[in-house]
Amino acid sequence: MLAPDALGRLLGDAEFAAAMERATAAFERYRKRLPIIPFAYSRSRLLLDARFEIVAMRWAPGAVSPIHDHGASRCWVLMLDGTLEVENFTRHDGPEARSPMLSADGRITLGRGDVDHRLAPTELHRVRNVCDVSAYSLQLYAAPIATYSVYDERTGQPRDATANCDVVLDLATL
Questions:
Q1: Distance linking the first and last C-alpha atoms of the chain
Q2: 71: nearest Cα among 121, 138, 117, 118
Q3: Which residues lie closer than 8 Å to 32 by C-beta, 6 or more apart?
Q4: What is the DSSP secondary structure assignment for residue 9, as one 8-state letter?
Q5: Per the CATH hierarchy, to which homologous superfamily does domain 4-167 belong?
Q6: pLDDT band at 140 (very low <50, low <70, confident <90, very high)
Q7: DSSP per position, 115-130
């Protein structure tokens, strides 16, 4: 895993880094409590604060997200275990465009200890677990995520989505 000072530099906020360190240290205590949904991912809230929230995700083999943004939230992803493939997209809003245009901007592979981030609403991605075992990640959303947009790959047309959690766990008691 990342050294605490490296995590703090990546997140840019000591409080965010300390919360992520606590969630990372508690991983083995909550790992088996994260729901498994075949061919999908589950979201489990660990901490909710006025400034941010931390969500643990379990990505079943074959799980894939739609192309999405993170609404008004910035998002950092820390891989706890396993491997995820991330396809990056950029949203381009032209002055005469009736809907956003999407362009693919490559792929990255995230493994244990890697951090990825989305810091603007135009930074989109699709995430998939291409392995035959579950992958686990921590998401820190600043501000807490309530709504976001999901994009149709063919048309670029967005639709609103609500960020729901399958389970709420209390990081303080883990």
A1: 20
A2: 121
A3: none
A4: H
A5: Jelly Rolls (2.60.120.10)
A6: very high
A7: EEEE-STTEEEEEE--
pLDDT digits (tens, 9 = 90+) for 11-67: 677 888 889 999 999 999 999 999 999 999 999 999 999 999 999 999 999 999 999
pLDDT at res. 88: 96
Query: What is the model's pLDDT at position 174?
Result: 85
pLDDT per residue over 159-170, tens digit each?
A: 999 999 999 999
- Rounded CA separation 29/31 (Å): 6
Q: Which two tokens stand for residue 12?
A: 């840019």
Q: What does the block give as tokens for 52?
A: 């941010």
Task: Give 30's DSSP letter.
Answer: H
Report the pLDDT value the prediction gives residue 100, as an integer from 0 to 100: 73
Average pLDDT over residues 116-131: 91
Enumerate the domain spans of the chain: 4-167
Cα-trace Rg, the chain: 16
Nearest to 24 by CA among 5, 44, 43, 1: 1
pTM of the model: 0.91
Q: Measure the CA–CA gap between 158 and 108, rounded to whole angstroms.
A: 23
